[in-house]
Amino acid sequence: MSELKVDQLEVDLGGRPVLRDIHLCLDRGELVGLLGPNGAGKTTLLRAILGLTGIRAGRVLVGGRPSRPGRCEIGYVPQRHEFTWDFPISVEQAVMSGRNGRLGLFRRPGVSDWQAVNEALDRVQLVELRRRPVGELSGGQRQRVLVARALALAPRILLLDEPFTGLDMPTQELLGELFTRLAGEEHAVLMTTHDLVAAVDTCSRLVLLNGRIIADGHPTDLQDATLWTTTFGVSDTSPLLKLVKAI
Amino acid sequence: MSITDFLTDLFNPNLAFLPKALAIAVMSSIVCGVVGCYVVLRGMAFIGDAVAHAVFPGIAVAFVLQGSLVLGGAVAGVATALLIAIFAQNRRVKEDSIIGVFLVGAFALGIVIISQAPGYAGSLQQFLFGSITGIPDRDLYVVGGAGLVILGLVLALHKEFVAVCLDREMSRSMGLPVFWLDIVLYVLVTLAVVISLQTIGNILVLALLITPAAAARLLTDRLGAMMLLSPVIGGLAAVIGLFLSWSYDTPVGGTIVLIATAIFLTAWLLAPRHGLLAKRWRRVGGPGRTDVTRRSSLSTPASAPAP
Ligand SMILES: Nc1ncnc2c1ncn2[C@@H]1O[C@H](COP(=O)(O)OP(=O)(O)OP(=O)(O)O)[C@@H](O)[C@H]1O
Ligand SMILES: [Mg+2]
C-alpha cells in the first residue's frame, strides 16, 4: 500500500477548475519532483494533500486513511516567505513550533519534544546555530530551519514547496543530498520545484503537472519533447527542450 | 513636588482616589505590555486602534444608562472584534479596510449615543483623555480580575499564538484552530484596552499597547525577554507618569504616554546590538560584535535603561 495515494482528485478555487483528474502514489523511499509552470496548481495540490483546501471530488489517503489537518504523518515545508522571519525567536524555538501538531492545545514541550528538536537540528546540520535568532540566517539556513521544523514532527511523508528557489548551487546540492538521505531513511518525499537541473539530479521520479498530470515517471523516461511543451506551454524551439535532451 | 510628598499624598486618606488610580494604571499597563507584544509582532497596531475606538459606543450606552463603563466598553469592543474577524474572512476587501469601516462606524455610533445624554461634554473629555478621579472601588476589582484572566489566557495559549504568528499555513496544517485563536487574541486585546481606558483615555490607550512592546523589541531578540521587559516598561511609565502628572498638574494619560515614548526613544538610541549608538560605535572601530557577544542579548532585561 502506498504511503500517500491521491485518487481522481478535483479542486476548484474561486469557482474555477484548478486541478482535474489527479492520480498520484507516493511510497516510502521515494523522492518525487513535481514540475509545472506558475499557476499549474502545484501548491494547491500540496494543500489538498494536507487537507487545507476543500476538494470537489476524489480523495486523498495518507497511510490508508483520509487526510485531514492535524495528522502527524505529514511534514509540510511551505515556501520560505510564508514564515515570519523577523520574529524574535531562536532557531531551536522555531523548530519546536513544529511540534505543536503532536503537543496539542495547552501542553508544554517535554523531554521527548526537545529530543525530537535536537534530532531534527542534527539532521539539517544546524546544531551550532540553534540559539541564533531566525532573522539572522541566510536563505539556505532558513530553508533548513523549515525542513527541521517539519522533521520535528517525525512524519512519514514530507511535502516541500519550492525548497530550492533563490538558493545558490552549493546550498541546493546540500539540500538535495539531505532530501535524498531522508528518502533513503524511509520517508516519502514530494517536492515542487522550478529547477529542472536540480530535480533531474536528485529525484527518483518526476511528475509533470499543469491542471492535470501530463506525465509521471523516471527522468530518463520523460525524453519526449511534447510532454514538456504541453506542460509548460512553450514552443518547439524553447531552450527548455535543449535541457530536457541533455537529461 | 518631591517623591516624599507624593508618597505622603498616596497615603493621605483624603486623597483615596490617588492610590486607586495608581493601582489601576500600573495593572493595566502591565497587562497591555504583555498583550502588546503580540500586537507589535503581528503588526496588529491598527486592530488595537480600531478596538480602542470601538469600545466608545459601549461606554456611551453605559454612561447613558448609568451602568459599568468597563463592562459596556468590553461588550462593544468584543462585538466589534468579532465582526472584524468574521468580515475579514471575505478576501475581496482587505482586512485593513474592514477595520477602517468598523473603527469609524463604532466611534460615530458612540458620538451619537453620548450626545443624547445631558451634560455630556465633561464626561466626553474624561473618556477621551482619561482621569484619575471618579474611579469607583468596584473597578479596582474588575480591572484586577480581568487582568489576571488575560494574563492566564496568554500563559495558556502562548505556544499557539506564537505558532500562528510565525506561520499560519503551517499552523493550519497541524490542526490548530487558527480562526478561533485569532478571535481569542482580538478579545484579549479588547479587554486590555478596556481596562486601561479609565486612566489613559480612549485616544491614547493605543500607546500603552504599542510603545512598551516596541521599546522592548528594540532591546532584545528573545521573545521571553521581550514579554518580561514590555510590562516592566509599561509599569514604569505608569508610575513615573502618574507622579509627574500629580506634581505638575498635567493630564495623566498624556504624561504616562510621554514617559513611555521617552523610554522608546532611549531604547532606540541605546539598544545593545541594534541601537543607533551601538551601530555608530561599531562603525568608528569599536570591537566587532560577533556570535560570541550575541549571548549578551540574554542579559538585556537586567540592563533595561532607567529613564
Ligand atoms: N485563493 C485562490 N482563489 C482563487 N484562485 C486561486 C487561489 N489561489 C490560487 N488560485 C489559482 O489556482 C491556480 C493554481 O495556483 P497554485 O498556487 O497552486 O500554482 P503553483 O503551481 O503553485 O504556481 P507557482 O509556481 O507560481 O507557485 C492558479 O491559477 C491561481 O490563480
Ligand atoms: Mg506555488
Could you please describe the fold and organization of this structure?
The complex is a heterodimer of chains A (247) and B (307). Chain A folds into two domains: 1-73 and 157-215, Rossmann fold, CATH 3.40.50.300; 88-154, no CATH class. Chain A has helices spanning 42-50, 91-96, 100-103, 111-123, 139-151, 169-184, 196-202, 225-232, 239-245, and strands at 4-13, 16-26, 31-35, 57-62, 65-66, 74-77, 157-161, 188-192, 205-210, 212-217. Helices cover 34% and strands 24% of the residues of chain A. With 247 residues, chain A is of the alpha/beta class. Chain B is mainly alpha-helical and 307 residues long. Chain B has a single domain (3-299), classed as ABC transporter involved in vitamin B12 uptake, BtuC, CATH 1.10.3470. Chain B contains 14 helices and no strands. Chain B has helices spanning 3-10, 17-42, 45-64, 69-87, 95-115, 120-129, 137-166, 168-173, 178-200, 205-219, 223-248, 252-270, 276-283, 291-294. Chain B is globular, with a radius of gyration of 20 Å. The two termini of chain B are 19 Å apart. At the A-B interface, helix 3 of A face helix 7 and helix 8 of B. The structure holds adenosine-5'-triphosphate and magnesium ion. Magnesium ion binds next to helix 1 of chain A.
CATH architecture of the largest domain in chain A: 3-Layer(aba) Sandwich
Named CATH architecture of chain B: Orthogonal Bundle
| Helix content percent band of chain B | over 70%
> What's the CATH H-level homologous superfamily of chain B?
ABC transporter involved in vitamin B12 uptake, BtuC
Supply the number of helical segments of chain A: 9
Largest interface: A-B, 34 and 28 residues
- Low-confidence segments of chain B, given as residue ranges, are 288-307
Tell me the count of domains of chain A. 2
Neighbour order of strands in the largest sheet of chain A: 6-7-8-3-9-10
Instruction: Name the poorly predicted regions of chain A.
Output: none
Beta fraction of chain A: 15-25%
CATH class of chain B: Mainly Alpha
Number of helices of chain B: 14
Estimate the global geometry of chain A from the Cα principal axes.
globular
Order of helices and strands of chain B: HHHHHHHHHHHHHH
Q: Specify the biggest β-sheet of chain A.
A: 6 strands, mixed
